[in-house]
Amino acid sequence: xxxxxxxxxxxxxxxxxxxxxxxxxxxxxxxxxxxxxxxxxxxxxxxxxxxxxxxxxxxxxxxxxxxxxxxxxxxxxxxxxxxxxxxxxxxxxxxxxxxxxxxxxxxxxxxxxxxxxxxxxxxxxxxxxxxxxxxxxxxxxxxxxxxxxxxxxxxxxxxxxxxxxxxxxxxxxxxxxxxxxxxxxxxxxxxxxxxxxxxxxxxxxxxxxxxxxxxxxxxxxxxxxxxxxxxxxxxxxxxxxxxxxxxxxxxxxxxxxxxxxxxxxxxxxxxx
Length: 272
Ligand code: HEC
Prior knowledge:
Layout: H1 3-23, H2 60-66, H3 87-90, H4 110-119, H5 129-142, H6 144-147, H7 156-159, H8 175-178, H9 182-191, H10 205-222, H11 241-261
Helix pairs in contact: 4-9, 5-10
The protein binds heme C.
Heme C is lined by residues 142-143, 145-147, 167, 169-170, 184-185, 188-189, 193-196, 199, 211.
């Protein structure tokens, strides 16, 4: 046997042993990597800081900045952040469950308040008995202490507590507020007004409109007018549920009539 060959053999085995001993995985190391990128993603992941010196996303600080949570693209809204009626109630559109957080596109300035008053006219929800009841419960808890149970601006804090509350809360029964658009109310609920704080974190989208409807019903009672599920003689911007139901019945009748009278010729496309 060639002793030189034997020595070579031992050296090679020793060297391989040396290589594997310092490259095998264990504890907190991945061991040696055959191809570096196979263990470390080249992509950077949102909200995960996985710095690796062989990746080329700039310095450690650069990567740290890049993986921070970001603002959504402007003009987009997250699923659920929409007003109106659930898709499963209408049977069309993309199914989503509304979550009460509807974006508000008016800023907290006097100019924007005037824009809201001019543009937000209709109440998106029909007047229902259930909605008015919800509105009453919320109004009694959140507003009546200042604005009064009747909406006359003489709540407990102003009336009974030795007039400790420093300013006069709005009197909803004055013509100025009666004749103001729903936007004046909605804007106040979002941002508050002077000494009054905002309620955007306390009332959901639908609840805000319920409270506004309830205030409208207080104003109607004061004017001896009707504002309820069946009839609204108080204003033209809020629709009683009876009107909505009537319209739905009419639409159904039209669809049913179309189904029975539709002839095949309706579906044929004309020749060119
Ligand atoms: C802590 C007392 C307080 C509470 C509670 C309160 N408000 Fe007010 N609110 C005020 C005061 C004070 C003003 C008058 C602000 C001003 O004009 O300077 C006011 C004004 C308003 C106005 C008129 C704003 C305008 O454009 O002139 C509306 C509408 C209103 N409040 C709605 C509500 C509703 C709805 C609630 C319940 C969700 C509520 N407020 C709860 C004190 C309160």
